[in-house]
């Protein structure tokens, strides 16, 4: 039997486990329960997929989202692992066929929704030999979580009914309350809790405070225009905002669409699908978007508005860069959003929890220390170094003695009876003479105009700092009036000094670059795009998302490593045996063709020189440390460029004719595998290559 490590390479093409994956797998294999907390993109799936391969029978994977199931099953099949999903969208016959296959031990993993598992428990447990239960998105069981699904709470009975089958619950939501709830509700048996670091180093973090709406959208457009081939998501607070943002992008020639709960299911899934298939560059979405997608090459995520809580924010930015490549995240934050969110949060029956969560979100957005540290602290981690990849680390904040500024603001609050909100206070400080101020008599108070030298916008930001510092407090239930806290009183009465953060000027994103010259496509991009095209052909052919063929990270490594043999290709992360067999030749061909037409002109001459000295191909390959196939491809190129007169030494007329006939049938693909297969593997690859060169020259 293969070890977990061997399976990792064979099926998934990865060299090493990520932190904790191996321990989790071992735990499951010892038939114990586990609760796995890992960030989005952290690699949770492998933790139950590998045990499923090793244990006899079928693993039942419970997942709340039907769209995600199909993609996961596609991805597994793409790696040569037999799996299926089972849900009510299928006909009775289909369902029967799947259960039948499980019964015969032909399905290693069965994906199922909680509703379906509950309604069909009897038949499923009768027909399948269950190897393990994996409960994905397990936080859905908790009413504390942000994504509560009542059906999840009913699954606890399974644990009692199947005491000897291991249970693994997985989630990207880590707060303690949810964690405890999951264990309790699912009745996990002495589970070992695995918490991997929530740090996603490849995501850059940036918060932009108080950008005005018009500038905001222009900035975003400029940002996207500089990232031509990169997919991204813009999260908006409301449906209306989604559509507005979409329209602005559309008007600027950006291939975008919107996505929100007001659309019908078909329209929504079409957007998802087009996005996954790289048909759509940008989606403007409410938070409803994303849970059901598993697209590894999302390069950036923008929050158009402040999110409700850190869990949601972290999960949303986590949708960027699942492939591990550098990805950008930007959060826009302004006072109006905060006010609106406060209103929402204060309404429900969980008002207290929600308001507290929003406060933490606000503190994050307002922070003037390393943002990643704050995020990780939230998830109970304490990194000891600043990250270097957030806006604060890149542009450290400075402080000044803000006592006088603060006193002015607090005095304005005090003299208006602590019943006014932020914008009124700003107007008083600035000395506005608008009607409301006159009629309330606020133009008579001592603080009126006391802060006229500070722009209104800066006052807003100072007041927000004061909220964050606990000097002021917002009374949600009194029209957002700002109240002075005890600590604020100490400052007001001169008992305490206070530091404020110097407001950094807000730099529009890369404005300076807006008029830059059209970029010359680098060799890297040229080959990458070429490989993307090949990937696309296979994806369309198999009707799966492109990343199911290979992720961007895998293509990236191919471009950098330029493998020239099957062995070298297999050593690329993400290339397993199944994929090597299916796609290896096509990708190798493109890479070799590229290498030969680009940076290796002189390498041909080297080969040519050796050929002229009558050195055999085996020897040339050995001496030059190249694959024989590479040497053959040099010869084919030398022939095409007229430096080698004839290939008759390597391929005869019969073989050329066979290849010619095969091409007629399988098409002129430049991919040799179909030809090889069509000829029932009777003509070796190097001869096919030679024959193709001859045919090309003959036209
Ligand atoms: P999650 O479910 O935690 O959000 P996934 O299981 O979808 O994350 O994994 C995210 C990505 O990381 C996938 O593309 C997956 O193939 C990849 N991945 C998982 N484990 C490894 C590993 N050990 N080495 C390299 N890539 C991995
Ligand atoms: Zn930082």
Question: What does this protein look like?
Answer:
This is DNA helicase RecQ. Residues 25-192 form the Helicase ATP-binding domain. Its cofactor is Zn(2+); Mg(2+). The chain is of the alpha/beta class and 699 residues long. The protein folds into four domains: 4-195, Rossmann fold (3-Layer(aba) Sandwich); 203-394, Rossmann fold, CATH 3.40.50.300; 399-501, Orthogonal Bundle (Arc Repressor Mutant, subunit A); 523-698, DNA polymerase, domain 1 (Orthogonal Bundle), CATH 1.10.150.80. Helix content is 50%, strand content 11%. The protein has 34 helices and 17 strands. Helix 2 (21-29) packs parallel to helix 3 (45-54) and helix 24 packs antiparallel against helix 28. The longest helix is centred in the last third of the chain and has 21 residues, at 577-597. The protein is globular and about 105 Å long. Mean pLDDT is 88; it is low at 508-519. It binds adenosine-5'-diphosphate and zinc ion (ZN). Adenosine-5'-diphosphate (ADP) binds at residues 14, 17-18, 21, 38, 40-46, 294, 296, 322, 551, 573.
Write the layout of secondary structure elements.
Elements: H1 4-12, H2 21-29, E1 34-37, H3 45-54, E2 58-62, H4 66-78, E3 83-86, H5 92-103, E4 109-112, H6 114-119, H7 121-127, E5 130-135, H8 150-153, H9 156-161, E6 167-171, H10 176-185, E7 192-195, E8 203-209, H11 213-225, E9 231-235, H12 239-251, E10 256-259, H13 265-276, E11 282-285, E12 298-303, H14 310-317, E13 327-333, H15 335-345, H16 351-366, H17 371-378, H18 391-394, E14 399-401, H19 403-415, H20 422-430, H21 435-440, H22 456-468, E15 472-475, E16 481-484, H23 486-492, E17 499-501, H24 523-542, H25 546-549, H26 552-561, H27 566-570, H28 577-597, H29 601-612, H30 617-624, H31 628-640, H32 653-666, H33 672-678, H34 685-698
Parallel strand pairs: 1-6, 1-7, 2-4, 2-5, 3-4, 5-6, 8-13, 9-11, 9-12, 10-11, 12-13
Antiparallel strand pairs: 14-17, 15-16
Helix pairs in contact: 2-3, 15-16, 19-20, 19-23, 20-22, 24-26, 24-28, 29-31, 30-31, 31-34, 32-34
The structure holds adenosine-5'-diphosphate and zinc ion (ZN).
Zinc ion binds near residues 392 and 393.
């Amino acid at each position: 039997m293969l070890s977990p490590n061997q399976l990792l390479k064979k099926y998934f093409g990865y060299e090493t486990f990520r932190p904790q994956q191996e321990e989790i797998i071992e735990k499951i294999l010892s038939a114990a329960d586990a609760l796995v907390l890992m960030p989005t993109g952290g690699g949770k799936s492998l933790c139950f997929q590998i045990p499923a391969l090793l244990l006899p029978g079928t693993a039942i994977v419970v997942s709340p989202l039907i769209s995600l199931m199909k993609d996961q099953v596609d991805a597994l099949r793409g790696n040569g692992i037999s799996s299926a999903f089972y849900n009510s969208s299928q006909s009775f016959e289909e369902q029967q066929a799947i259960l039948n296959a499980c019964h015969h031990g032909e399905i290693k993993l069965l994906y199922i929704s909680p509703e379906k598992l509950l309604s069909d428990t009897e038949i499923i447990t009768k027909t399948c030999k269950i190897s393990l239960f994996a409960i994905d998105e397990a936080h859905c069981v908790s009413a504390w979580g942000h994504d509560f699904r009542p059906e999840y709470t009913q699954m606890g009975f399974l644990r009692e009914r199947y005491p000897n089958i291991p249970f693994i619950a997985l989630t990207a939501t880590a707060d303690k309350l949810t964690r405890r709830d999951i264990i309790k509700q699912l009745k996990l048996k002495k589970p070992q809790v695995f918490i991997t670091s929530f740090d996603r180093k490849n995501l850059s973090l940036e918060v932009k405070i108080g950008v005005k709406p018009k500038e905001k959208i222009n900035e975003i457009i400029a940002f996207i225009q500089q990232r031509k081939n990169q997919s991204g998501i813009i999260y908006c607070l409301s449906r209306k905002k989604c559509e507005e943002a979409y329209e602005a992008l559309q008007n600027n020639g950006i291939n975008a669409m919107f996505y929100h709960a007001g659309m019908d299911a078909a329209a929504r899934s079409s957007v998802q699908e087009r996005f996954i298939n790289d048909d759509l560059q940008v989606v403007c979405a409410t938070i409803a978007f994303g849970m059901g997608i598993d697209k590894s090459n999302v390069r950036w995520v923008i929050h158009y508005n402040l999110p409700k809580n850190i869990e949601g924010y972290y999960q949303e930015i986590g949708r960027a860069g699942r492939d591990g490549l550098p990805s950008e995240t930007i959060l826009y934050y302004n006072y109006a959003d905060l006010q609106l969110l406060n209103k929402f949060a204060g309404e429900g029956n969980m008002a207290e929890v929600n308001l507290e969560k929003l406060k933490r979100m606000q503190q994050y957005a307002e922070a003037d220390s390393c943002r990643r540290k704050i995020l990780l602290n939230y998830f109970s981690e304490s990194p000891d170094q600043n990250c270097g990849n957030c806006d604060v680390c890149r542009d450290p904040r400075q402080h000044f003695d803000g006592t006088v500024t603060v006193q002015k603001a607090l005095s304005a609050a005090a003299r208006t009876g602590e019943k006014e909100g932020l914008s009124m206070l700003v107007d008083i400080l600035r000395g506005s003479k608008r009607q409301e101020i006159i009629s309330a008599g606020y133009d008579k108070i001592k603080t009126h105009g006391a802060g006229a030298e500070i722009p209104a916008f800066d006052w807003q930001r100072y007041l927000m700092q004061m909220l964050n510092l606990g000097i002021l407090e917002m009374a949600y239930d009194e029209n957002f009036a700002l109240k002075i806290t005890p600590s604020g009183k100490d400052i007001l009465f001169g008992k305490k000094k206070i530091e404020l953060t110097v407001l950094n000027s807000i730099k529009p994103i890369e404005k300076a670059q807006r008029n830059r010259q059209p970029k010359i496509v680098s060799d890297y991009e040229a080959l990458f795009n070429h490989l993307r095209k090949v990937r696309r052909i296979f994806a369309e052919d198999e009707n799966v998302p492109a990343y199911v063929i290979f992720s961007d990270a895998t293509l990236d490594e191919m471009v950098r490593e330029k493998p020239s043999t099957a062995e070298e290709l297999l050593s690329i992360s993400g290339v397993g045996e199944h994929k090597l067999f299916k796609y290896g030749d096509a990708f190798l061909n493109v890479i070799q063709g590229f290498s030969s037409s680009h940076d290796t002109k002189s390498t041909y001459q080297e080969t040519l020189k050796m050929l002229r000295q009558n050195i055999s191909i085996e020897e040339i390959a050995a001496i030059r440390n190249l694959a024989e196939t590479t040497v053959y491809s040099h010869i084919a190129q030398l022939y095409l460029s007229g430096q080698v007169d004839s290939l008759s030494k390597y391929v005869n007329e019969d073989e050329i004719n066979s290849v010619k006939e095969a091409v007629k049938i399988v098409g002129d693909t430049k991919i040799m595998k179909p030809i090889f297969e069509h000829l029932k593997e009777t003509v070796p690859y190097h001869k096919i290559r030679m024959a193709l060169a001859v045919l090309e020259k003959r036209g």
